[in-house]
Sequence to fold (332 residues):
Amino acid sequence: MSSSSSKNSTGEKDETNIAGIPHVTNISFRPEGDKDHDEVPPSFFPGGLQGLVTGPSEGRINFIERKCPRIYNSIVKIFLPLLLLICLAFFCGHFLADLESDNEISSNNRKLSLLYKTEFLKLGDIDDAIKNSYDSCITQYEETQQQQFVNITDLSIFLGTCTQASVNKTRSHVQDLRQESYNRLYDSLNQNWIICQNSTTPRYAQSEFITWKWFTSFYELRSYYVDEENLSIEAASELAANEASGTDECKVHTAAGALVWFTIFSTIGYGHVAPETVGGRIMTITLGLLSIICFTAIIGQAGYVLLTIADDAFFRIGLQRLTKGYASVFFW
Fold:
């Protein structure tokens, strides 16, 4: 339907928009009967603030719209749509986090298993070196002593003196390795889609909790395989490391998923996390595109309302120059 014009009873043309709704070129936001201002401020946009609602309205809603156009349009055109966007972020973010949580749990368990197989087995080799140093010192003691009976006190003093430097150096090295291993592990554990404790718990503490739960599960499984299955300690450790889990008490982190979804439909894109599963990527592409369209439409509508209210306020305080021309460009 194209725009049309008709003549009213006075012979003047009455312009209509594309929807067939008359344009209101002058609109007042004053309550009826307010005579404080002689000038009726023209609206910056065709149709004014009341013209934002083009559909028919009746009864109480129509009365509120006519009497309180600013409040009505701020709520209906700004706050309620923004609330809808927040709900959309939590809804889609929860399902996205649910799709990605299993993959993140498996990744964390693999990292813990790798830590045990590489770092902790090395620490076990160091323990063997400490034992060998004692055996070596005992051999030296036997070679230097000619008497038949061993003096326990002399032997203890000799072992303490012989192994002191080696033990101190080894212990220091073990502590450094262990701390470095834990630091690397805590930094590498992912907690983008899952949460294992309260949301206020720091990330470092969350990583400690996951690690503690994994080693608890590991030792329980290893004891089971040794006691019930009669496996060797090496074979039991290998099986336990592959099956242990530190994330059994973790759950989907809805708030984190909502934050990720907000960065998607607002096109901010922090880049700190991205979906890795096929389902998560498909959901991001399809629903993400629709969310971006909704966000753009709502933000555009909110800007339209705010500008109309601002222009009316400028007219009321005598700053009409800020509503048009270069002055409005520089101001906004």
